[in-house]
């Protein structure tokens, strides 16, 4: 990934407390990205019910690209690396590509949820799991074809192609993502709430709300760097105002988002959360023999998850007492009430 003739140093010289804290923060960020996304990825792979749903395939894709992003950050963020076209320490467009794959996965997941709730019958016919996997494979292949092209052409051509493509792509995809978010919020607020309470409608609503929240955090983390790149393309500068990747806040934000996204997945999906606590982390706790306070028993975890699911269930519009007090005189209430 780097030119071995160039000596590599830490992200900042370790000559002051502030520089040491920045160095440790970069290591902690890369490790957290790797740990959380690996946990979610294993939870999905270990649960067949999750693997059978298309939306979890996009989660799987996001986690995989973020794992690769976390691994690459041990180089690009922990060390003194300037990931630019002619930099001797560049990653040959590989590290930024993993971030871009997460972006494309979130956009595809938004479109998938919109199709699922807007046209459920057509969605069930068209979007089989194999077709969903083909969509995911298509944008992974596309991303690395662009990487190959940029590494095969001259630096001048790569700058022009990447500059124009990034400029147009950022504007259109951000507009599409914001538009889909508004539309999904409208559907979740006004259409799905009118449906009769059921497991299917609750699942649809929770999946829509989850992707809305994930996309909002994603836009919050990515808009600064998008705006910065667009402005740089207009001015014609190199878009680098900091010493390296690890000290540039607008390039750190997308990596922080790679920590937030799996946390939102865990918080927003009870089935994923239960698998994570009872199978993935529980297995790790057994192998490391951590105390029981760090690894609660599976029964306690299931009870906690069930209570959260009950708390999130829609309450009846009429209290039960009003329903049964209106029974005709002489008619007995159903047993067990």
Number of domains: 2
**Uncertain runs:** 290-294, 317-337
Main β sheet profile: none
What is the rounded Rg? 24 Å
The helix/strand series, from N terminus to C terminus, equals HHHHHHHHHHHH
Q: Per the principal axes of the C-alpha atoms, what is the gross shape?
A: globular
CATH class membership of the largest domain: Mainly Alpha
**Fraction of residues in helices?**
over 70%
Number of helices: 12
How much of the residues is beta strand, in percent?
under 5%
Secondary structural class: mainly alpha
Looking at the structure, the CATH topology of the largest domain is Rhopdopsin 7-helix transmembrane proteins
Tell me the CATH superfamily of the largest domain: Rhodopsin 7-helix transmembrane proteins
- Strand segment tally: 0
What is the mean pLDDT? Answer: 82
CATH architecture tag of the largest domain: Up-down Bundle
Query: Terminal Cα separation, in Å?
Result: 68 Å
How would you describe this structure to a colleague?
Helix 3 (54-76) packs parallel to helix 6 (129-152), helix 4 (94-118) packs antiparallel against helix 6 (129-152) and helix 4 packs across helix 8 (199-235). The chain is 73% helix and 0% strand. It folds into 2 domains: 17-267, Rhodopsin 7-helix transmembrane proteins (Rhopdopsin 7-helix transmembrane proteins, Up-down Bundle); 269-312, no CATH class. The chain has helices at residues 17-46, 48-51, 54-76, 94-118, 120-126, 129-152, 155-191, 199-235, 249-268, 270-288, 298-312, 320-325. It contains 12 helices and no strands. The longest helix is centred in the middle third of the chain and has 37 residues, at 155-191. It starts with 16 loop residues before the first helix and ends in a 12-residue tail after the last helix. By secondary structure, the protein is mostly helical.
């Amino acid at each position: 990934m780097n030119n071995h003739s160039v000596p590599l140093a830490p992200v900042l010289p370790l000559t002051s407390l502030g520089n040491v804290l920045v160095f440790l923060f970069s290591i902690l960020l890369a490790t957290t990205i790797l740990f959380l996304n690996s946990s979610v990825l294993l939870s999905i792979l270990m649960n067949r019910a999750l693997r059978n749903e298309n939306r979890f395939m996009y989660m799987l894709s996001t986690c995989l690209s973020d794992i690769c992003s976390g691994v690459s950050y041990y180089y690009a963020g922990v060390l003194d690396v300037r990931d630019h076209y002619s930099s001797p320490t560049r990653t040959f467009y590989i590290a930024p590509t993993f971030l871009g794959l997460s972006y494309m996965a979130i956009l595809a997941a938004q479109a998938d949820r919109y199709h699922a709730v807007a046209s459920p019958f057509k969605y069930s016919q068209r979007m089989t799991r194999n077709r969903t996997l083909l969509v995911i494979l298509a944008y992974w292949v596309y991303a690395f074809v662009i990487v190959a092209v940029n590494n095969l052409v001259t630096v001048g051509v790569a700058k022009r192609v990447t500059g124009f493509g990034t400029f147009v792509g950022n504007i259109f995809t951000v507009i599409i993502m914001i538009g889909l978010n508004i539309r999904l919020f409208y559907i979740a607020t006004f259409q799905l709430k009118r449906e009769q309470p059921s497991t299917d409608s609750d699942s649809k609503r929770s999946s829509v709300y989850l992707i809305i929240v994930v996309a909002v955090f994603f836009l919050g983390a990515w808009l600064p760097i998008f705006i910065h790149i667009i402005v740089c393309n207009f001015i014609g500068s190199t878009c680098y105002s900091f010493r390296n990747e690890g000290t540039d806040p607008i390039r750190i934000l997308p990596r922080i988002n790679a920590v937030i996204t799996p946390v939102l997945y865990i918080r927003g999906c009870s089935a994923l959360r239960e698998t994570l606590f009872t199978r993935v982390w529980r297995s790790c706790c057994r192998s490391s023999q951590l105390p029981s306070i760090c690894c609660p028993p599976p029964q306690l975890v299931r009870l906690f998850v069930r209570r959260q699911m009950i708390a999130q269930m829609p309450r009846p519009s009429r209290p039960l007492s009003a329903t049964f007090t209106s029974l005709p005189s002489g008619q007995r209430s159903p047993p067990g009430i």
